[in-house]
Amino acid sequence: MKLLSVVIPSYNSQDYMRYCIESLLPGGENVELLIVNDGSVDKTAEIADEYARKYPTIVRAIHQENGGHGEAVNAGIRNATGLYFKVVDSDDWVDTRAYLKILSALNDFVTEEKSIDMLISNFVYEKEGAKYKKVMKYENVLPEGKVFGWDDIGSFRKGQYILMHSVIYKTQLLRDCGLELPKHTFYVDNLFVYTPLQHVNRIYYMNVDFYRYFIGREDQSVNESVMIKRIDQQLKVNKLMIEQVEIGKIKSPKLRQYMLNHLEIVTVVSAILLIRSGTEENLNKKKELWKYIKNEDLELYHRLRYGFMGNLLNLPGRFGRSISVGAYKISQKVVGFN
């Protein structure tokens, strides 16, 4: 059995996937790289097969009909033989020194027969054209150098979240909690990191800048104009986060608060994009979203709708909406979330 399975969801990735794969090869025989070619029409499949031939004990190429990012991750979970599981998107990469430190730590847990459910590390926003690279660190909130639980954590700052880039999960935990991401849907990385957290008990944090998250391509899913076009998919993920986790039933107060904060920022993004689009149809969708949350979980609705951000997002009229957008832009700069 391998120590770590890394799934690389790849769709028309011929121009950048080699850099990603090469950054992961130093893991050697401890790691299996599952390159999932998600119905690409360029040379992605050929490149995946080339690496599988060259490194037959490390790389596996999986070819499937196009199912979207979530289905590529699902294929990774189904095929993984590693004890631990990581997703690295084909346009991102990892830092070699941090990678080797993480593998060493995971190996120590296996040797000492001390299993963990999740390992968290830092990630770097590799924003095209930016002189200053923002690093998402957790040293202010997570204990270092020991296994801990949710009751041992501090308070996360606004804009500080555990994202897909931060986590390595125990593979069996993902299977046991029945995680299955929806097909043909963007932004499912929120579900990947969010839904399993309620099943996590033993956590380990390494203060290393491991994952390099590239932002800058015009067609990238996190580009605001692209997100507005795909707003229905953002709303779908937003609703699934509410359906899949009953926040009120989470026993740990600190995890419960974290889950609420994470859900709040996703809901804020949904609402602000609907406002930004300016169409009557999308303004109605904003009303429908709040109605959906109210019907699904009244207590959650009150906490989201009547918190500071909820009130700000629901200022009446065109002038109120312009204030909402302005406040959101300021918070983007101050807090630094994307």
The domain tally reads 2
The overall average pLDDT, rounded, is 90
**How far is it from the N-terminal to the C-terminal residue, by CA?**
37 Å
Could you describe the largest sheet, including whether it forms a barrel?
9 strands, mixed
CATH superfamily descriptor of the largest domain: Spore Coat Polysaccharide Biosynthesis Protein SpsA, Chain A
CATH second-level architecture of the largest domain: Alpha-Beta Complex
Basic shape: globular
> Within the CATH hierarchy, at the fold level, what is the topology of the largest domain?
Spore Coat Polysaccharide Biosynthesis Protein SpsA, Chain A
The amount of beta strand, in percent, is 15-25%
The total strand number stands at 9
User: What structural class do the secondary elements suggest?
Assistant: alpha/beta
Oligomer: single chain
Q: What is the H/E string?
A: EHEHEHEEHEEEHHEHHHHHHH
Brief summary:
This protein has 13 helices and 9 strands. It is α/β, with parallel strands linked by helices and 338 residues long.
